[in-house]
Amino acid sequence: MEVLPCSRVAHIERKKKPYNSNIGFYTKRNALRVAEVWMDDYKSHVYIAWNLPLENPGIDIGDVSERRALRKSLKCKNFQWYLDHVYPEMRRYNNTIAYGELRNNKAKDVCLDQGPLENHTAILYPCHGWGPQLARYTKEGFLHLGALGTTTLLPDTRCLVDNSKSRLPQLLDCDKVKSSLYKRWNFIQNGAIMNKGTGRCLEVENRGLAGLDLILRGCTGQRWTIKNSIK
């Protein structure tokens, strides 16, 4: 075993875990405790990644006051210092204002989903709330879809685009979309999702026995809700 200064190995697992069978719960609980003690203004990243509300996440993380006091007594650097000096390539999502599953008032059992990656097209799929359905709406009006990216060295989560030609919403690398307006959307909770460049809305088309389609068209008053918001 090598010991590397500033290495980012998080955990070396045992072959057999002497833990409670519900390990997912404890993983989330520990992640939230770390976020609340150490991550300062970046703690929201953990809540976004797990698709949990910042307030009342449904997980009792216990009292972390002693851990915060320890951090203070040790005069530890803040998390911004860590990002600036140790992990500058970490992607930062402080521009997020809402996140989680996106549901339409005309089809509440299905959610916006990234679909097969190779198709580059957003779809509707039965709601499960995992990575492919993690929507993230930003201050700039971008609507990202998919699990959070990790570092700037790897591709970021793609964003929803109306290219003005197709009736299908595209999922593309935001940085490679030349028209700024085609990747920006007007959206408020329980309101329409309207593209700033084309004026078209993201809507659900009911095709009867053929199912539901996610399309772009002139707005008809359909409304969308997203699970979590950041105040």
From TrEMBL:
Assigned EC number: 2.4.1.41
Topological relation to the membrane, as annotated: Single-pass type II membrane protein
GO molecular function, one term: metal ion binding
Keywords in alphabetical order: Disulfide bond, Glycoprotein, Glycosyltransferase, Golgi apparatus, Lectin, Manganese, Membrane, Metal-binding, Signal-anchor, Transferase, Transmembrane, Transmembrane helix
Main location: Golgi
Domain of life according to the entry: Eukaryota
Enzyme class: transferase
UniProt-annotated location(s): Golgi apparatus membrane
InterPro entries membership: Nucleotide-diphossugar_trans (IPR029044), Ricin_B-like_lectins (IPR035992), Ricin_B_lectin (IPR000772)
Metabolic or biological pathway, per its Swiss-Prot or TrEMBL entry: Protein modification; protein glycosylation
Signal peptide: none
Name of the featured protein: polypeptide N-acetylgalactosaminyltransferase
GO cellular component, one term: Golgi membrane
Cofactor: Mn(2+)
Gene3D superfamilies the UniProt entry points to: 2.80.10.50, Spore Coat Polysaccharide Biosynthesis Protein SpsA, Chain A
Organism: Fukomys damarensis
One of the protein's GO biological processes: protein O-linked glycosylation
Record domain Ricin B lectin: where: 99-224
Annotated family: Belongs to the glycosyltransferase 2 family. GalNAc-T subfamily.
